[in-house]
Amino acid sequence: MQELINSLVSSKSFGGMPATIVGAIVIIVLSAVVFLGVAFPFAGIVSWVERRVWARIQSRVGPNRVGPNGFLQWLADGVKHVCKEDVIPADSDPHLFKMAPYLVVLAFVLPWAVMPFSSALILADMNVGILYMTSVTAITVVGVLMAGWASNDKWSLIGGIRSAAQIVSYEIPAGLSIFPVVLMTGTLSMQSIIKAQGWAPQHWFLFANPFTFVAANILYVSALAEGNRTPFDLPEAESELVAGFATEYSGMRYLFFFMAEWGNLFIIGAIITTLFLGGWQFPRVTNNAVVMNVLQLITFNVKVLFLVFLSMWIRGTLPRVRIDQLMSLCWKYFVPISFVNMLGTAVWVAIWPDGNSVAGYIMFAVGLVVAFIFVQRVIYYVRRSRMELYFRPTI
Amino acid sequence: MGAIGEYFQNIKETVSTIFEGMAVTASHFMRKPYTVQYPDRIAVRVQDTLPYRYRGILNVDLEICTGCLACERACPIDCIVIACEKDQKTKVLTISQFDIDIIKCMYCGLCSEPCPTGAIHHTSEFEGADFSTESMIRRFVTDPIDAYKPKKGPETDERIAPILNRGMRYINEFATPGQAWAGGAVVNGAPPADGEEEADAQE
Ligand code: SF4
Ligand code: SF4
Fold this sequence. Notes:
Largest sheet of chain A: none
Shape of chain A: globular
Distance between the termini of chain B: 34 Å
Bound molecules: iron/sulfur cluster
Shape of chain B: elongated
Largest interface: A-B, 29 and 26 residues
Number of strands of chain A: 0
Order of helices and strands of chain A: HHHHHHHHHHHHHH
Strand content of chain B: 5-15%
Helix content of chain B: 25-40%
Helix content of chain A: 55-70%
Oligomer: heterodimer
Number of helices of chain A: 14
């Protein structure tokens, strides 16, 4: 990054502009490329994948007409939304109404700055990376509440208020679940947290001790709740609130809300991967830095995409919870358990300051047993319904 | 113990039920979709897979229509218009108009029930979309045609006999419900998904 800017400055191609301005230009162009070329298409493609995944869960087919297997559906939808009229209700607060989607998108693009794709591919390895991540994703609540309020519509307002209550509540267990990892590594930097883990599952923080295992699950569920994902999609509960805070939105602005929602899946996955699943860690097979970085990039993305898939799977499985269930889950269960986790990890770190490798192996074995039981249950259900097996992901 | 036991019981139930639910949906990933990809990606035309009693767009076999106007009277929304003239000398009934407005028609089947010969009947055709409302009025009579006169015995005319057979079969199917379903609705050539129901019944 810095070398690139230096070389551009010394090459005089910018006519002797000061280094800071050249740096700013480079960063703006790079971020534009990253967001337009990676983040937004990712959000679009996820929307297509998600619809296909739900469809298979419900024995349907899903969008399969636009492009090969419907792959271009997301583009078609995007173009359609861009072409639609941007309606601003007469009684709304037009400035807040227009601003709200941008705040939501802002909360979606800002975390990419500290996304640790590989040991070298990271925009800014801040020493407060994970703190930054959790704080900027919380900007969503401002956008959503703003949208709900400015629409001047009861459904929007209820959606916005619900969203605010939900996001603010789940920040607490989410924050407390990050704490065990911070306790064990003594750092908030994304890269340092990843470097403290190994490539093998038993060296991941997920399996470091029982407390981190529970913390990872709580963090994942809380992140889903913060991202307004089913089973916690109360702010936009279609059957009760029309479309919640997005009721009055149309066209591009509506698209922004949903793009941010789908894109947030990647960020949720990235946080969990970084904290608990070993991030980009890959066995050192070669000394070639470029090859290593590519392998690390692939590792990181595979882990994140698995978590994204998991969230689609959960969305296809679980029904929406009631608002009181949502709150009791957070305050009665997650918050106390998170505190227990925090204390437990503190004690654990006090006893074994350098971690306990035996515990890692035992926890990993337990994880394998759980996975094995799960596969057994799946086989049981396949047998029970005597279904016609069909393994192609496409149709 | 009570409250605390309930607390842990809740956690256990949450985890175990979600675990089971995820297993059920995971098994669905391996299930063949049931979607019929109408209209193009199908092995057989959908029209051919519909049950015999399917109430699609009406059709009239003018060869066996007696001109009794029972259908016109039965229709609750008057979408059938029939014009018949009786020649006073020859006593021959001529049908000069037989229109069915399939926009108004609600496919209730009340017209086909009183028909003595089964001339007016539903087909399995349902693709009626067109660009003008005028074209949605099905005009069955182009040239005035003599109404059918039922014979005392079985039909002798070779041309009309099969049509009348079909008509009578149609009436039978509608008149005796028990028999009707015995004809069996075979959807898509494959038996309907029964695995699950059976399995559920076992529980
Ligand atoms: S099906 Fe019902 S609505 Fe249609 S023509 Fe017959 S009686 Fe009238
Ligand atoms: S279609 Fe049937 S009910 Fe209608 S006029 Fe002809 S014979 Fe009578």
